[in-house]
Amino acid sequence: MDDDDVRRVLSRVAMKDGTHHRDIIGSAVDIVLRRRRRMRAYGAAASGVAVAMGASAVVWVGGGSAATRPEPATSSPAVSTSTQAPAKQSLWDKQHDIYNRLAGLVNPLLPSGLSLTQSQSADLFPSGGFWLRGPSGTNSFDLSAVAKSNRNQAMENGCVAGGVCSHRQVPGGTLYISTKNFTADYGGNSGYAPGTGKQVLSFSDEYEFVPSADDGMAVDLMMSAEVSKEHYAAHPPSDDWQGQWPPPDVSTNGPRDASGVLLSPDDFATLIAKPGFAAVTTVLDQYSPVSAATLAQHKAADGTIEAAVKPVLPAGLTLSIATDDRLGFDDAMTLTGPSGANMFGWRTEPLPKNWRHGQACSSHTQPKCTWKEVPGGEIEVTHSWLPGYIGGATYLLAPGQADTQTAGSDVYKYLPDDPNGTVVIVSTGEQYRDIPWAAERPTTGAFADPSRPWPPPARSGVPFNAGGPLLSVDQFAALAQKPGITDVIQTVNTAVDKVGGVNVSIWG
Amino acid sequence: MTEAEEEFREFAVAVQGHLRRSAYLLCGDWHLAEDIVQSAFVKIFRVWRRVRKVDNRLAYARQVVYRCFLDLYRKEKKQLPTVPIAGLADQVVAESEGGDSSFDGMVLEALAGLPPRARAVIVLRFWEDMSVEQTASVLGVTEGTVKSQTSRAVAQLRDRLATAFDEQAR
C-alpha cells in the first residue's frame, strides 16, 4: 500500500457523497447577520464553532459600573432625525468624515475623566476606529446611528449569543442593554491553570437606543476591552499539542481595562440626551453631507495617486479612489481607460520561501490559471468569473442564460527569480456584460412584489468595461518591473486609506 | 441581499461540495461535516469584505475548515466520533447492498483511529494533495512535524487497512 493507494482510498470514500444536504450557506449567513452588530468585539472572535446561539433569559441588570457618574437626564434624547436626501458623495467620503469629526463632537459630551480618540486601527475603521480612554484603561468604542426604519432589531429580539440582556424605557424611547463576559474557557477549557477557567478575559457590552418616533434615529454603542490575561497550566493540554507553550500573548495592543466598561447604560442615556448629541447623529447618518474638509481630503488623495502612478501606468489609464462601496477592500480604486473602468487594487509581498522559477500556478485551485515567462521572473494570472446572477436564483434570468458570465476578476502576480525580490500583485475586476434578466416578473421571491421595479438594472454599479481588464499581461509585466514600483504602491495605498492597510485575518 | 452576501453565496455554493468531503474525511460523519463547514462559512462570511479578494479563496476556506475541525476536537473531544465511527461502519455495512461500503467504513474507522492532527495531515497531504510546506502552513505546525506525522500516520493506516485493501484489490 503506497502513497497513491492512500490517495485512492480517500478519494473513493469522500466522493461517495452523503445524502443529507441542508442549507449550510443560508444558515451561516443568517448567523453572521444576527451576530454582526453584537459580536464584533475581539472577545467574540474566539467564539469558534460552539457558540450558543439560543436566546438566554432576559434578566434585568440595574445600575452601571460607575456609581459616581451623573444620573440620566430627564429630557428627551437629542438624537436628530434622518430627513435629508442622499447627497452626492461616496462612502469613502462619509466614512472618513466620521473618522475625522466624531471625537471632536463626542468629547465635550462625555462624563468627566473620559475622552475619545482615534484608535489608528484599520481593522475597525471607521465608525469603530475609536478608543474611549478613562482613568483605569481603554475600551473600544463603536458608535453608529441609523434611521429607526433601517435598524436590524437584533437587540430587540433578546440575547443572540448569551450574556445578559435587558431593556427599559428612557425619555423618548427604549434603551436595550446587552453585557457579555468572555471567560477563559469560552472557547473550550484547554490548558488553563487549575481554577482559572472561569476567569473573565474580556467583555463586550452594547447599548441601543430605539426612539419612539418613527422618524427618529436609533443609536447603537458597542464597547469592549481585555480585562485580564490567561493563566496557563504548566504543561500543554495533550501530547498532541504542537508549538510554543504557553501560547504567545496575541492581544498586547488592544484596548484594556481591568475595571471593565467605562460608560454605563445610565451614562449612555445621559450622553444621548444632551443637546449636543444631535450633531453626533447627524454626522453618523450615512445620508448627511460630509464636510468641505473631508471633500478636500478626497481631492488631495486623488491628486497624490495621480502624481504617483503617472510614471508607471500605461498612457491613457488613470487611477483614483473608488466612489462606490468598495472601501476597505484591496481593490478600493478605480482604473479608468478610454473604453470603460475596472476595480483596481495592488500590493507587494516577499517572495515565498523556497520559491523556484516554474512554480507559477502549481499550487492554484482556480479553474483558470496561466503563466508567462518574462525576463527576470514569471507572471501568474488567475481568472475567475461570475454567472449572470450571483445569488443562484437562475429563475430571475432569461431562459438559457444561467451560465452567462457577466463579471470577472483577474489577479496578476509578478514572481521574480531573485530570492530577495518582491512579488507585485494587481487585482482587477469589472462587469463586462449586462445581466440578462428575464422579460417577465418572477411569480415567487422578493421580486414578485410589484412595488419593486422589474427588471432590475442590467449593470450592478461596479465599474464596467465590455473588454474586461484594461491592463494587459504585458503591460502589467512592464509595470511590475518599473524601478521604484514598491514605493509607488505604498504611496498610493497610504493615500487611499490614511489609517493603514487592510489585513486578512482568518479569525476576524 | 447585499452585493457582498450575493458574492459570498456564489463562492460558498462553488466550494461547499469539496469542503464537505474534506470535513467528512476528517470526522467520518456527514452531519458533523456539515456542522464544520457551516462553522467555517460563518467565520468566512464575517470577514468577507476582506476575504473576497484573496486570490485563492478556496485555499483560505480550506484552512478555516481544518482549523474548525481541530477546534471542535479540542472543545468536544468526548463527543467526536472516534469510537462511534466503528458504529458508522456497521451502519454503512447494514445500508449497503454490496461490500464496497464496508470497505469505506473500514477506511473511515482507520482514519478515526488517528489523532486529530495526524488525521488532518493525512487528509491534507493525500486528499488535498498539498505539499509538506502547504500542510504545515494550514495547520500552523512545522514542516518537520508534518513529515513525522505523515510517516507515522501512513504506517498506521497501512497496518489497519492492509487486509481490507488486499481484499479490495483482488
Describe the structure.
The complex is a heterodimer of chains A (508) and B (170). Chain A is an alpha+beta fold. Chain A is built from 8 helices and 14 strands. Chain A has helices at residues 3-15, 24-35, 91-106, 265-273, 277-284, 292-309, 473-480, 485-496; strands spanning 115-118, 130-134, 137-147, 164-170, 173-183, 200-211, 217-226, 318-321, 333-336, 341-350, 368-374, 377-387, 405-416, 422-431. In chain A, the strands form 2 sheets. A 7-stranded antiparallel beta sheet of chain A has the order 1-2-3-7-6-5-4. In chain A, strands 8-9-10-14-13-12-11 form a 7-stranded antiparallel beta sheet. In chain A, helix 3 packs antiparallel against helix 5 (277-284), helix 3 (91-106) packs across helix 6 and helix 6 (292-309) runs antiparallel to helix 8. Chain A is globular, with a radius of gyration of 26 Å. Chain B has a domain at 1-80: Orthogonal Bundle (Rna Polymerase Sigma Factor, Chain: A). In chain B, 81% of the residues lie in helices and 0% in strands. At the A-B interface, helix 1, helix 2, strand 12 and strand 13 of A face helix 1, helix 2, helix 3, helix 4 and helix 6 of B.
